[in-house]
Amino acid sequence: MNLLKQLKEVTLSVLPTGVLAIVLSFALGVMDTHEMISFIFSCVLVIAGLTLFLSGVDTGLLPIGNRIGSAMTKSRSLVIMLACAMVLGVIITVPEPDVQVLASQVTSVNPDISSTMLVIFIAAGVGLMLALSLARTVLGWKIKVLMGICYALVFAIAFFNEEFFVSVAFDSGGATTGPLSVPFIMALGMGVATLRKHDDEAEFGYVALSSAGPVMAVLIFGLIYGSGTVSSVSAAAEAKVSLVSLFMEKLSSTGLSLLPLIIVCIIAQVLFIRMPKMEAIRTAFGILYAYIGIVIFFTGVEYSFSSVARQLGQALISRNPALLCLCGFLFGLCVVLAEPAVFVLTAQVEEASNGRIPRRVMLASLALGVGLAVVLALVRTVYGFSIWWLLVPGYVLIMIAMVRTPALFSAIAFDSGGVATGPMSSTFLLPFAMGAAGSSAIASFGVIAMVAMMPVLVVELIGIFFHHQEEKAQKEALK
């Protein structure tokens, strides 16, 4: 377990946003000395928590995820494989940090919505779509066809939904692709993809379909329950609580969330994985580190981190909407440029294009795309227009571009929507927008949805450019 490497990556992810927030807070007079110290301490807790959590995931959950994926393929029974994928999808999503944070943010503006039920619906959506992803790999279905059908269903259900749930649903699609679920899903997918060794597309698309599932599930949740009374951020959400009591609360609630996953890992080890004793002990310690890390992370987020983001949004909107959008663009750049998963994605694209699309070009394109996405979301927050004006044109362009995009790039593109929406999106960008929205709580949601949507379009356009260049090179070679 390379703690120093994880610490460096997480620090680079959190520090730029934290420093920018501190500079803006000084300039706007948002925080006094005590609040500044609390915020800095929260940043330290977030960094320490994420470092421990990701190290635990690498040491404990990824190895067992790979082994479970390999064991599933050995059964050769599609029914067993689909059932296992569905169960795993649910139990991985419930403790996902981004999902828990999003659910608490939704409840803060709408106490009528049960955060537990919302998380259950999101987890069920991931489980169903993870099973569909596995079926796609085994049966050789095309990712373009499946994504087209999924999003046609999503928009059909969204048409009959309240706008609040439309925003929350698309946000949930980005929130599910967090630091716990993505590595585990990718590890599972790589194990299953061995069934189709000569299909380059088989390893991609798992995250993409798993992101579409929660959107559909939350929309169905909205049809069943309705949105209730939507209000501004409640006073309870802003109330300061003791650091110790907050830590103990998270210790208990997080333990309950992780318990199903731990039970499944134990059952898998006893019945069919049977890791050697030392490896099993190392895995157990990894899961323990992940548990402690996620508790520290949640404590830091709720102690001061998210509340400062909300205060900054309030202060900037009261000063100048243009300044709010400029700062949002800068925060968007900080989030995507410091996200470790983004660097993994850019390496994949460089490899898939045989080096013709350099990582720096891809990284710059993603950064500009995510920055623009945050600006669009904040413009909607300021002027309060319907999220449909952003979602419909965005996904229409995505579907049109998908027709011309090479199959491999299509799979990578839809996966890329998840890599940009790391922990910073739900813990900082969403509260930032909520602060700017003020009493218009509906308009505060949709930031994560925009951040998740824009990279898809960017990667598709890069894929089309690469395909065009490849065709041009082939024609010149024939002359």
Task: Explain what the structure shows.
- With 479 residues, the protein is mostly helical.
- The protein has one domain (22-471).
- The protein has 19 helices and no strands.
- The chain has helices at 3-28, 33-75, 78-93, 97-109, 115-139, 143-159, 163-175, 181-192, 206-225, 235-238, 243-273, 277-319, 321-337, 340-352, 359-383, 388-404, 407-419, 423-437, 447-478.
- Helix 4 runs parallel beside helix 18 (423-437), helix 7 runs antiparallel to helix 9 (206-225) and helix 7 crosses helix 19 (447-478).
- The radius of gyration is 21 Å and the shape is globular.
- The chain starts with a helix and ends with a helix.
Sheet-strand content, in percent, reads under 5%
Order of helices and strands: HHHHHHHHHHHHHHHHHHH
- Multimerization status: single chain
Radius of gyration: 21 Å
Give the key terms.
479 residues, 19 helices, single chain, 82% helix, mainly alpha, 0% strand
Q: What is the compact description of this entry?
A:
The chain is an all-alpha fold and 479 residues long. The protein contains 19 helices and no strands.
Secondary structure layout plus pairing:
Blueprint: H1 3-28, H2 33-75, H3 78-93, H4 97-109, H5 115-139, H6 143-159, H7 163-175, H8 181-192, H9 206-225, H10 235-238, H11 243-273, H12 277-319, H13 321-337, H14 340-352, H15 359-383, H16 388-404, H17 407-419, H18 423-437, H19 447-478
Helix pairs in contact: 1-2, 1-12, 1-13, 2-8, 2-11, 2-12, 3-5, 4-5, 4-7, 4-18, 5-9, 6-9, 7-9, 7-19, 9-17, 11-12, 12-13, 12-18, 13-15, 13-18, 14-15, 14-17, 15-18, 15-19, 16-19, 17-19
